[in-house]
Amino acid sequence: MTATLQIRTRSAEALADALIAEDHAEEIGFLDALDRITCPAHRRWIHQCCHSDLHVSQVSGHRWCRSCRRALEVAVDEVNGTIALHCPKCDRGARTRADAQLVAACEASLTACRNAA
Description:
Elements (H helix, E strand, L loop, with lengths): L9 H18 L10 E2 L4 E2 L18 E2 L4 E2 L1 E5 L4 E5 L10 H20 L1
Helix pairs in contact: 1-2
């Protein structure tokens, strides 16, 4: 018989609690899905998975350069606490409301993750 030991860190517990709270807030209409600091698909802090193609939306403009019709690249610097968006074709950075919304969510996510550690 094999026993499995599961160790939950304070950070993992904080993430789990945040996911539950945001899932509920979104379900009751209190939180917009695009303002979340956690990702319901990846079950991670948003700054840890925002680079995924799943987070590109041509419709809303999140991580999308409309003029180049390309996904924006994301750079998350966890040491300095900065988030940068960049189009690999035209070199534009974050300019739109959707860009600002993603950067704000990532910054809040990074802060929450740091505070939980």
